[in-house]
Amino acid sequence: MTSERKDRLIPVGVLVPFVLVTSLFALWGFANDVTNPMVKAFSRILLMSNFEGSLVQFAFYGGYFVMAFPAALFIKRYSYKAGILVGLGLYAGGALLFLPASWSMAFVPFLIAYFVLTCGLSFLETSANPFILSMGSVETATRRLNLAQAFNPVGSLTGMFVARQFILARLDPSTAAERAALAPADLASLTSSDLAIVRAPYLAIAGVIVVIGILIWRTRMPGAGSAVRRLDVLPTLRRLLADRRYVGGVVAQFFYVGAQITCWTFIIQYGTEVLMQTRGLTESQAEVAAQGYNMAAMIIFLSSRFLCTFALRWVSPGGLLGVLAVAGFGLVTGTILLPGVGGLYSLVGVSACMSLMFPTIYGIALQGIGEDAKLGAAGLIMAILGGSVLPPLQAAVMDGGGMAGLSAVRLSFVVPLLCFLVVAWYGFRTLRMERANS
User: Fold this and answer.
1) What is the predicted pLDDT for the residue at 354?
2) Handedness of CA 398, 400, 405, 407 (dihedral sign)
3) What is the pTM of this model?
């Protein structure tokens, strides 16, 4: 009976803290996926190339990279709860910066707002992921994190819905060429109106963040960690760098996040191209319709996350990770080669394969490292840099033109194709290590 209680997925005493911390997964999911369609939106509103628009993702995921290690040091010195509260403050502050950014009608202030916002998300993810792992036994840690992460796509789906219904559908339908032909005063008026539409969801989420922050501040968080006098950073880093499972996890996470963000960001460009060709839609109509496919992908992602969490009761995390990465490789191949909506359906299907990857790589990499997880989490959050580096790389391929009978948009998906090979390598290597230790 004692062993059964010990192995409960969520011990009774941490249920309320678990629910509150799990709500954060939905909050950063909202930020991620209300932002992905903005690459295309900013390109049209501010008359920029795909590469320039993709700098939204560079600033967004760059904030994760820059702040992850300082966040880990802060958490190690204070507590998971303190890190969460700082993260919520930065998240709300970055969201509020959208107000002056929209008034400026310039791109750089938006990039600054995104950067500040994601510095907050970096604090949240660096705190919340290992905190969830610690809320119970080591044996159930990866399943527990997968359960918490299952609510991330709920926020993502909400963000996609908001982006589609309250941003993309309300923007002026003028194409970039039509905007460029306007008189300067008319263009300025149109740009101001569209940027006001873009900022509204970010201002609304700032209010939600304040409410969640107050609830967490007022709630006792058992096991949130306590202040330490000595950080012992260098010995901890040496232990982490000597751990092959951990280092491989950081590499795999970099490429996984890159694959996820490229697939979810450029499904708008891919879907727009396909739907204009096959259905004769205008560009603005096709963008809204493509976001519908993006939402379908997220529903599949959410459903698959719950199924994979359930399957992990019997299946090796490393083995399942490897199999899903191979399936993702196959579907991205279909995205590149299949004509018409067949390629679009393949791209939507990739989300089923990605659902397990982030929390499983995270759980495998931090397995059994104890207190080192507070700094170890920083490396895995810094690996989110893949979402900053790889979308501009794919956008550059897209701007460079097609070849071998493939459009530039289709050809660009070779970037996530290669990413899935790295994830498959880590999954099957982990499986071999699990078998060797069993």
Assistant:
1) 94
2) positive
3) 0.75
